[in-house]
Amino acid sequence: MKQKILTAVALAALCTGTAFSQPRLTKDNIDEVIAAMTNEEKALLLVGGHDSVTIDGTDYGCPFSACKAVGSTRAIERLGIPATFLTDGPAGARLSPTRPDSDGTYYATGFPVGTLAASSWDEALVGEMAEAIGNEVLEYGCDVLLAPGVNIHRSPLCGRNFEYYSEDPLLAGKIASAYIKGVQSNGVGTSIKHFAANSQETNRLENDALISQRALREIYLKNFEIAIKEARPWTVMSSYNKLNGNYTQQTYDLLTTVLRDEWGFDGIVMTDWGNKEGTVKSAKAGNDLMEPGYQNEVDRLLAAINDGTITEEEVNRNVRRMLEYIVRTPAFAKYAYSDHPDLEAHARIAREVADESIVLLRNEKQTLPLSGGEKVALYGVSSVDFIAGGTGSGNVNRPYVVNMEDALTGAGFTLDESLANYYRTYAEHFFAGLALDPKIGGRILLGSVKVPETPVPASAVWSEAKSNDVAVVVLGRNAGEGGDRKIPDDFDISNVERDLLRNVSAAFHAEGKKVIVILNVGGVIETNSWKNLADAIVLPWSPGQEGANAVADILTGKVNPSGRLPMTFPLSVWDNPSTKNFPYNYSGNAHPAKEPVRNVDYTDYEEGIYVGYRYFATAGAEVSYPFGYGLSYTTFVYDNPRVKATADGFTATVDVRNTGSVAGKEVVELYVAAPEGGLDKPAVELKGFAKTGLLQPGETQTVTISVDNYSLASFNEASSAWEAAAGNYEIYFSADVNSPKASSAYTLKKARDWPVNNVLARP
Asked: Hey, which residues are catalytic here?
């Protein structure tokens, strides 16, 4: 009875603001505010603002209803606690471009996707891009960007790989760290996601990732560990899936023991957008905020608070974190956002990032660069339906997308107009038909349907080969949230595409003319069976709204390509050891099966730590293009390699000289081979990288990369410790994982170990 009376008094104060004096939230009185909060208010603060919530007949409004973002936290006005707003990323702020109370448009810049950003191997450049993204978050009145996504490219078939960075946790962690720092330099927050082991989209809400402790620690958590320790994101987003039998968002050992106790994370953890029944278990585990926020979640929390299922200490712990987050936000500071970020300046940054990240995969007999004055036969529907980014929450409502037609024309090329008209007309008819069948559009989450490729008669191709100087074939793929890719007609090229490549290659080569392929794709595709048909292959991934202009910069030599692959291109998808434990042929959604379905309800990460190049390099397996690979229009040599021991590791130094005839940038990749004995280890592992400045012909730059002993360690499940064995470590300065250019050695005289908690064991 006493509790009900107190609650009634508090509610009266909330409604009138005059019952008794209440504290107003400041950065210095958080404990006082918590003491003044009712149980109802605490429950409200821990649940996002998607629903208008009713408690004991009192309606608590829905800040999300008036929000241009994807989510919010709830205001408690009597205590001076404002609502804060969350917006999707990571290729830019995903906001609605139109508003019911305005005739204006509010676009955000469509930056390159995560995979292309990682292809830059340039932390400073990624930081510059992220700073621009963070400025748009700030100037559009939001407080947190739901990015970056850092999950590992375990399989090339994962539909969401375009949002993520790499198959390697060091590269992913370092690029994510640069991204976080850039965004947060604006005084807004990030939410690193999806924590953890969200490696497939099929049945992503329920799939159970079965992973050994070693693989989990070394591959699927290391990326998060690096970024969280180095960049201190404001928030972490827990994933939907299960991990070794338990939902990640309800696992105390993941969200508290590892994340907070071991890594020192001091921000808030929020759920991914959903409504699982285990709200109370999530809160107890360390999920401070349930998003997007529903009535039943408030009800569950309030009931648990009142009956003691969740303790006062646990509730106050989560509430305190929420208030510590809120006082950092622009919303709390009452920042007067402009709604008008400098989109023109940011478009220039988007183009620069694409310029510096595009990967040149093939360039036989110096096919590229072109002069810019050639007459071009431009093939492929993606020449007009250019893919700037993926679908789902990673999509951006951008003001425009430059297509390849406009980019090549702008760069001084003359297009075969008849061929261009053919593709334009085909795409227009496709979209007109799409408009008549809304069911098709509804199959794509937050994006548009990709126009399928259309055949070109062989006779037409032979005619075009006579009247044009060069052929450019654009192959396009899109992918996105909510579904994984398939092997036929996606990872493998389609019959229509194969026929097109064969016909174009035969016809143009018969005339002594070159064929260039542009891979406008969201993820890895098979290249080995057809790459010899092309004289040059350019990989821009999904490069943002200005990406086609960046492709033209590469084709003309205005920019010398310096991107490098952040993952392996295998000969076949079946060469990747994860394929047999991936839902490559599953269609449909989760289903009420009598028995759990392999790779759908659960997935066995049977390959352990041997993901990507760790497998291919160790097995000595041939690949189409190795991890770290990329060509340049110039050449480099590495001289004078040296390694110097430091107090807790070593610095590796090498001189890089441009021996070619044009200016260019080189990525130095540092791989380490561990001494024999002890734990089984991959042949080599990436332990550092650096990108040079623009080196003029003959110019030399000394590159220094630092590595600490902890980074050399592997995880020993038997001792629950990171262990670095004593002995000689071979150090390779490489152009890609298969191409060492210089080497040295580092001797660790005494073995080192770093014990951690024995948690998250596979059942």
From this structure: 272
